[in-house]
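Tutorial, part two.
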Amino acid sequence: MSVIVILFCLIAIVSHTFAFYLPGVAPHDFKSGEEVELKVNKLSSIHTQLPYDYYSLNFCKPSEGIKPYSENLGEFLRGDRIENSAYEIFMTEEEYCRVLCQVTLKTQHVQDFKHAVTNEYHHNWIVDNLPAASIVDNEQYVTTQYVGFPVGYTEGKNFYIYNHVNIILEYHNVENDGHRIVGFYVEPLSVKHAFDKPWNGKGDAPALSSCSSGKYLSYDTVKQKQTVTTGPLVFTYAVEWRESEVHWASRWDVYLTQNHAVPDKVHWFSIVNSVLIVLFLAFMVAMILVRTLNRDISKYNRLPTDEESSEDREETGWKLIHGDVFRPPTELPMLFCVIIGSGVQLMICAFLFVIFAAIGFLSPANRGSIMIGMLFFFVMMGSAAGYTSARLFKTFKGTSWQICTLLTAILFPGIVFSIFFSMDLLVWSYGSTGAIPFLSMLAILTLWFGISVPLVFLGAFFGYKVDPMEFPVNVNTIPKEIPEQPWYLNPLLTCMIGGILPFGACFVELFFIMSSIWMDQYYYVFGFLLLVYFILGVTCAEISIVLNYFQLVSEDYRWWWRSVLTSGSTAIYVFLYSIAYFSRLESNMTVTYLLYFGYMFIISVGVFLVTGTIGFFSCLYFNHMIYSSIKVD
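Running the prediction step on this input gives:
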């Protein structure tokens, strides 16, 4: 185990320190004067979780018309809607205060802008595949809270709109007079513009008396701010180019390493905390295996002496239930097989996803790749789900294998799709871009019924072809009566204990993951995540084995469901933690409650399946090992 931990630590260090990722696009070398396209994405807010199309507000529209860019399925699932803009930017050519357009705000426009400002909606701009990072003052670039910049802000009862932006682009020189864009920052300002003479918004704009020629606007030079009110509204922008020593491969560091010291310390604190929990549980398991089990096995296997009577040799403890310990569960055996099959599918899917993300194939720099990767691995692992549930159901001597296989193929995905589709209808009713288009929904159904379901049945076919699992002891015909159990082995109590330790091993990393999902932050430390995933699995295995042993010593052989529920109860703590985390969104909209807790319920069910499956296989292996080590008459 120590070798694997060291290996994963090395992966975490290398993937983080050297920022090894594949951005998904080749670098583009711009020539001086070449047009640099600025694209606009959705308007997003962490308070509502309802993204909207950029042009749903009365912003300046491009003269050639709005043109959407092709998006992959992952981008649609994230609610991205990328379109062209009216901004004209040319490589190394600077602008100081260029008029973009003048729009006229009507009452409905004013209400829309005030709603966006109140809920802290943000622009999401893109230049050369780089998202815009905000500037909060004249010297420091930050992306600690949001990527992008706000639509406006409030002071008291006044609403102000950011109608001027200083677009700062950093570039790195390459051979043959080429330039690569390595930084994209936006400094938003609210400026009440005034023209030297009246302008109706058509033709060339006259000079602005609110802008000085050849100088950039700043917070200090703005005299009057633009309120959100009916009437004409002028949008302007400036473009500044700065040469940088940052190489193209490292240009995402400002987004991925928002603070170069604190996150590393927090992540390593999480790892150390988790390793301590693992070592504590490993010590308990070692005490059971090395001392208690060895003593039990030696006692059960030694030959009786002449002085020993039959009463002295009476079986006690876990050996006494050897004829019942592998008796199939009497309560919902088919559902048990379906849960384990789905758990195997998710467990392998999560492992492959984290591996590929850690080595860089699934990078946040390639929008939508993470969502596509998750869908791909889940669909392809349908064969593992079918094989596992089929063989386990055959071991239980089940007869309705068709129903078992069908439930494996549709139960968990059906629950996820039902909630997802309900949330999609809800989001669609609000006119949000978070609603999945019909063709994308059709693509998801095709992946499910066209690929995943057939793979589940294919895996089940091979699962029923192989022999059932063999156990080291035979199962008695008549089940043994279970004695009254001590209070500390109450199923509810053991489940609560069994779930809190695995949750404690991963809750710090869970905070960063949830911040990525709900707070528009980038998650990038997949090396750490790989290590935490391994630690979570080891913790689930160890706590399940410990509590399983105590249960067998008390002559309770109903361990099948208990092994799943013990470690699977980690999901309860995940959901409870999500309730506490919800306060960070500061939302009072009903739709946000439904979206948040609907999707967190899906995540919690997935955590239950993964951790419960790990607990089951750990207990199965443990029981197989200890009962194959004793002699049974």
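The two ends are 36 Å apart (CA to CA). In part three we will examine how such features are distributed along the chain.
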